Give the backbone structure.
Amino acid sequence: MLQQEIHDFLLNYFQANDCLVIENHPGYLTVQLTVELDKELMNRPFYWHYLEKTGGIPNPMKLTLITNQKQAPEQIKGEIIHFGSPRLHQIFNSTKNLASYIRLYENHDHLQKQTPLLPWLCMNVRISYQCDRKRDVFKSIGLQLINGQMVEGFHDRIQKIQLTPKIPDYSFTLSPLVRPKSGIARIETYLQNIISKDDHSWADEARKRWDQDLRLLNHFYEDVEEESANYETEKQALQEQYEPKINISIINGGLFYLTDKAI
Amino acid sequence: MMSVDIEFDSSWQDDFLHRIENDGPWGNWELFNLAIDVEKHLVIPEFEGLQAPNHLPNLTPLPHQLETAKQVIENMNGKAILADEVGLGKTIEAGLILKEYMIRGLVKKVLILVPASLVTQWSIELNSKFFIPAISQRKSYVWEQCDVVVSSIDTAKRNPHRDIIFKQDYDLIIIDEAHKLKNNKTKNYEFVQNLKKKFCLLLTATPIQNRIEEIFNLVSLLKPGHLGSETAFYEKYKRDARSLNDNEHLKELVNKVMIRNRRADTGIEWTKRHVETLPIEFTPQEKELYEAITTLKNEGDWVQKSAFSVMTLQREACSSREAVFYTLKNMLQKKEDPTPAFEEQIQSLIKRVEAVQKNSKAEKALEIIQRVNDKVIIFTEYRATQLYLQWFLKQHGISSVPFRGGFKRGKKDWMRELFQKNMQVLIATEAGGEGINLQFCNHIINFDLPWNPMRLEQRIGRIHRLGQEKDVMIYNFAIKDTVEEHILKLLYEKIHLFEKVIGELDDILTKLEFGNIEDHLIDIFGKSCSEGEMRIKMENLSSMIEFAQDLKKGDTHAAAGNS
């Protein structure tokens, strides 16, 4: 992430959370946190607890984030933000937490004509291939809950569509024939199918390394007569180190009600 | 093809269905999109390569450090002995590896075991250079509540800590100064052996090529069986075999789990060492004291038995009258039923101590401190001298802090800080091998010389390391016509000690399989009956050292030829 991208991201994050942006200059940004965001980011539960008990006037903090030290004036005091900084990663996590679930409707222009909206289930996932090393793949899957149509890259496609959280006038939603729960199961099966067709040489290689180390370990404990707790510990450690596995985690997702030709 | 287990996160689903039922609450579209943007930046599509450098704007790792991190992760599966020569930044390498694993989500819970004096420094470096929230262990709840904990092995191995530690599930264990684990009969060894080591880094500055037994123990700690079982190993290699170099196959095996970068290969420009040797004249009173002590060797029966005390007194007389006085007082107190003759001897020496009005070395030190007008570290072997110097410098308006190996961790950190921020001089008795790093200072005065060259090396190593930006100035004091001058000649002219780059001496001294240099010196100065005998013995010693140096050079050539 470039420093400018980080700056834009932070600005979007605070605006999306209804914070007043007090200053927004190249190189830095000062925002007035809302009560919710102060609780989310500033890690001061005692203050909020105290306030709720005593009924005082809440005073959420202001936060200054420096996104480019060279551009920010010297006298500006604030937290320096870069791609590795803990604060940025806290905000990354917060972004995910605050928007894990969504429901939106297409804001179509079929004026004065009753328009049916079709339900889509969207799941944005990260697939992690892990042994003693790791790599990830991002996938966005959409499933139409009437006819079962499955599409990849759903998130990119939906960017072109006008969306709104309230159902627009002259619109009605069609009830799903596939229930959300079985929709999720279908997406899971679909992902498992495409993953199983992947190249899994990485896992074979990891198992080879595991096997090799295990043989060395067995050899090492050959002369030891009694049952050794260390042997079991080491064996366990090797499994944790090498055993290949694939984790699918869900970043976010939700329901989208779209017109017939939208996707 | 074998199948791989696929774990599908189901926690999302429950909450989602719940929200459908309750008609919300639903997240906002901008945040939803932002979360996906973030995710696209955070996924790491390749197994290979290092992500850590992109996360570390405050750090520019050197090429050999990056290469080492990559090697350990990609070819050594995260289990390695990092054995770079002193001062090449093993901590940085370990930090890079740790950071990489943390970014990729392979490591969360980490245990870092280091010497007590380095605990704070490790936490500070991990926090400031790597943005890793490492905590110095001070309370026992830390083990469970914090993910990255730095502690000394001596604390960790004791209860209640020990039991708590064994209940934790560590992903990575880092051990600094791991050469201390070369003996598999020790409690420390046993403790580390019992830890579950998924990923593990052992850091050591001392090359482990010394003894085949030590290599076996260290490697077996990291990767049991890599060198075979104990019986099989010793059947193949003789227990007393001198070094790793005797066996190509073994060397190759060890190199699979060990990385040793050498200064010469890194291509880093090191700042220079300038050594100035300052012969110093005694004042007449100081000379009288020294000579009175020297004549003890041939006098009375009480000293004959302890050549060592005479030698100690001689060396102390070269340092300060306070050091001599302190020892004399001790001798008098410890002796049961002292004879009148003995008491008289001591008393007459004490009179000579009292006659000394000036300390020639202290005057010289003052002159240098005033001339360089910069931070200076003074090393002395004696606490009495240390106290005296503090007083003496204060008389001349120069601020100083004392430093001793015996200080507690917090006090050491505090003294270092005081020296860096407020004081001009740090007066240290033994730096305590792996003590503190003082590379913000570039002047050292060796007020008196240790007889063990490794200790001298460690002294200099405190300031001549990566991060030192200026040339390093070393001032060696030696009083003319005393034991000190002999020692200096040996260290300086014969071994060319001060011209060596750091680390080189390790290799040379391990080649010298004839024991400790200090013991040889004690033998030479203590037992020689005449100047002539002493000179001959000194020459023998220095030619042995030269021989070892030649051996070392031969090695380097051979290695260069092979590669």
In short: The radius of gyration of chain A is 26 Å. The CA atoms of residues 85 and 254 of chain A lie 30 Å apart. The first strand of chain A starts at residue 20 and ends at 25. Chain A is about 40% helix and 30% strand.
